[in-house]
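Hi R.,

Here's the chain you asked about this morning:
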Amino acid sequence: MQSSNLLIGIGALLILGGIVLTAVQTLWRGRLSDAHTLDSTPTDVTLEPRGRSRTLGLKGKWPGLGLIALGAILLIAAAAV
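And the predicted structure, written out as tokens:
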């Protein structure tokens, strides 16, 4: 019973840590509505960036997603015990 509680606690902390890590990585990359263009002519004023946004990709978020997955595995293991 004690090991099950320990697995639940560690799993919950890993999930929370993964969520925080993923959110911090997204916030540190800057605003989502910044236009990343070379020319300075404001012909099309919009809140959406031109082209594909580089802040929403999964490439840089693997550590956070890995922590979330590991935490989920620990929670499932604790439920099976």
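Helices lie at 2-28, 62-80.

Let me know if you need anything else.
M.
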